[in-house]
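Homework-ish question, so no full write-ups if that breaks the rules, but can someone show me the predicted structure for this set?
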Amino acid sequence: MKKLSLLAALSAGLLSATVAQAEPLKIGIIESLSGAQTSSGRLYATAIQYGVDKINAGGGFNGEPIEVLEYDNAGGAPGAADKFRQAVADGVDIVFQGASSAIAGQITEDVRKHNIRNPGKEIMFINVGAEAMQLTGDQCHFYHFRYTTTAPMRVNALVQSMRQAGDLGTRVYSINQNYSWGQDMQAAIEAAATDNGYEVVDTVLHDVNKIQDFAPFVARIKSAEPETVITGNWSNDLLLLMKATGNAGLDVRFGTTYLDQPGNIANAGETALGHYIANNYDNSAGEPAFADAYKEATGHYPLFVEPQTIFAVGALGEALSGVDFGGGEIDVTTIAKALEDTAYETPVGPITVRPEDHQTIRPVVVSKVVRNAKYPADDTDMGFEAVNVVAGEDAIYPAQESCAMDRPD
Amino acid sequence: MRTIIPAAILLIALLAVPPFLGLGWQNALVNLLIASLFALAFNLLSGQAGLLSFGHAAYFGVGAFATLHLMIAVEDGLPFPTPLLPLAGAGAGLAVGLVAGVFATKRSGVYFALVTLAIAELFHSLAPHLQGWFGGESGISAMRMPWGGFVFGSLLEVYYLTLGWVVLSILVLWAYTRTPFGRLTLALRDNEQRVRFLGYDAHAAKVVVFTISAMFSGVAGALLAISNETANYALFSAHVSAQVVLHTFVGGATIFLGPVIGAVVFTLFAYIVSDLTRSWLFYQGLIFVLVMLYAPIGIGGVIRHHLRHWRSIDWSRLAAPYALAGVGGAMIAGGVVFLTECVAILFGEEYAVAMRDAGDTLPPFEMAGMSWDPLGPASWLPPILLLSIGGLCLHRARDRIKPLWDAIEGGAAKEGTR
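A: Not a homework solution, just the prediction itself:
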């Protein structure tokens, strides 16, 4: 609406001037809110709104309710760059984004450059879903915080838990998408082999979301005779791979990272039974109160990327409770420092920020697809059941050497 | 003279007004200028030479990446003036356009479109794998370096840099149309056979046109790279190629500045509407369909039609039905927006929660600051009234406008035969 009124003011030949008062903290969500990727974008936005509503119900921040502004990045990095500038124009203090590492790469660079050019008017980027290693590697900077796992954390937790459950075996096959995420996954699978007593029998990197028929890949998997297939595939690449494996009658266990994407379980059907997933959270792992409260407000149990997003906003809320600007100007650097020191208690354990690269140290939940689950997925009788919660310190890996972070004084 | 004065006024406005605008509008203006140049470059090929390319994102993207590589080199100490960075985009667009053009222009029509589409797709699928050139799927980034007393840190400096390059490029493109080769370009579209019989090498001519078009697309991409300071493989996506086709045809492919009109309309539309409603892409598509159905010559074409007959138009008789048509159009637009937004709310997730809380009945919903009952006639009366009265108005207006225009055009035709 602000833009419309601005337009009216312009057409009348007037100039608009913003009036500075006790300023509210402004959160900007730069997500895919139209087009093909809308469903993920909406999950992030819903979870952020839920978290902010909770903070506002407790009195907001700086004497004002926190404002949430949504920006549609139209699914691409150029759109995100454009919307980031719009967010700057609107006076946004904290940017949230999660879907797509490519877009996160754009935003984190934009934030870094903005902060170099506008000292004293910094902007913070809370990354709630982009898992590319370079975001906490050579792209890392003080104002970026990653409130989600990365490939090594997921893989470490996954193979540890599967091994303890006796479902891992000694022959592991790695099939992943050929871009940074899939490459990170493959590297993590290979790195965890010796510690967990398995051999990587073969590795495959394939095109992203272009393959319609996975039969040739399944034939290759079959000939390598693995007991477990670990994959970071998401969306169609995961579904079609699992279905092709099922059709070929191949008896392998899948270790996955994105099996809980809405629609996957319904689509895969019985083929999904017994497969594993490592993720930030699963409703069956924590107390029911968390899931119920979310359902009460939004109409569904927290799923897929929502829990980690709720945790991120929760951690921010806790950091804000220790900061007081007395209704005056908001200093994002102070908030960032407070967030760095915040240990946020989730239903499955604490989340802390590693100061060297601003990766969060967080518990990873490993769960398995079962029948008659407590929290059924996609209106089926199947769902996820937590088998293990790997504590943050057991899942974490050393900070990357490529991260050289300049800290503000 | 008649075109110079409005152009000068527009240029002065573009120079003088932006410092007083907010950051958001400055950003929108930068996007608008880049989209305009891209659409003009595209139209050189599609409108003037009659070669419809569906893959112009390739040259746009190549220009952006080449510029970023130069920017990185400048960051590392290469003494290159920042304002001349788009030359890298021009060079890359030219080189890639030349190679692609040699192949693509061997065919025309649908086959040409398919070849260009394939070339763009080639870049789109290769780019994420070529880490060194395109930086994987996260792309490459650089910073604008200060030069000659300019810091190039503020959006305003970027705006003036963009404006300078866009105005210069538009002038060159316009001058091109006045040259004998520019005339030959039009002849290629109208009758390629005849061009060949006149002794010209049609293929070579088409390659040249293609290359020039790709070069200016590269400049547009370079300007985007300078303003965004990053580029990733999404620049090669079919969406970018489609967008420029949309801009060009809505604006009018047969008029030199038509594509600019389309680019301005759609960029402003996206800027104003995209954060107001989630259905903005639907509205954008609707505009495109309506323009194609009822004004296939584009918005620019409609404007030119009026300018051409300016002297013979009897505005005292035409003004009233035009106003009526405007009112009717606005009412129909209001009705459509009302319905679309209702549907978006009623099938949205928030309403699903409200419905569950109300015990599976249909609770009233909020829209535009008012409460509406989904089953109440009072909610559906406004759109029905808007659509039906609006339709009636438009129908009426058309019946009155058509004979007037027939008379104007008939008069003009008679004058022509005399």
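Now go work out the reasoning yourself. Hint: Chain A has 13 helices and 15 strands.
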